[in-house]
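Input.
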Amino acid sequence: MSAVPPVRVSIVTVCWNDLENVQRTLDSLARQTALHGWEHVLIDGASNDGTAEWYQSAGFAFPHAVISEPDNGLYDAMNKSLDIVKGDHVVFMNAGDCFADENALSRVLSRVSSSLAWGYSRARVVDSNELKVRPNVGKIPYSRVKHLFGGGVLCHQAVVMKVEFLRELGGFDLRMGDVADYHLLINAASRALPQTWPEIDVNYLDGGRSAVNPDIWGKHRARVDVLALTPTAASLDSAWTATQLARIRFRQKLKPLLGPLYVRLLRAVSRDGSNQ
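Output.
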């Protein structure tokens, strides 16, 4: 009997009372053509909607594990996974998010190596019907300046990171609240620039907290922390952040008027096959 290949990539999903979206994500995993070399780990925050029970009885064909216990939020749960994952690299796939096609995980596995600290591909932003609703996420080539100042947003679901590197970074800093993922990635980039891949590997479900109400001032605090800004530099960053917030509020006022037209245009492009 041939030996089962070792786990190289761990796919981690964290959730709380979100059974329908967990099932959506796991259905995506079940359709992957890659049969070996990966696992799935569910970190459940003691849900009372049957999520853990469903997961334990689902009979997945791939290695999987679940922890169901109270936690201190999304990023605390993500940090917990670092104690149990078996892979050398990790991908955090939120409940409701999916791989973009059945070969996406095969592509991820083909990229990981002992020398890869971290890297990212691109994500398609979709609604619950898998229809594209916003531009694709993932600036390629990577620009640290644009990433720092909001012009090169990365989707953490499309990021693959070496577990050892993530531990060296201290995991997700819970002091950063909703921008802990941004803080982690700009911290990672300060130590090692990411590899990038142009493929769309992830369908990111629109409507998360960061999409609905982005924490612009939180990102300011993250930059001050990671860059160790002097008081003068922090004041300049604060002034820039205020202008950025004003632009966002202006766009939010226009969205009720232009948003439906914009979504229709995006969907027309999708149907034409030019959204790649």
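The CA atoms of residues 51 and 253 lie 38 Å apart.
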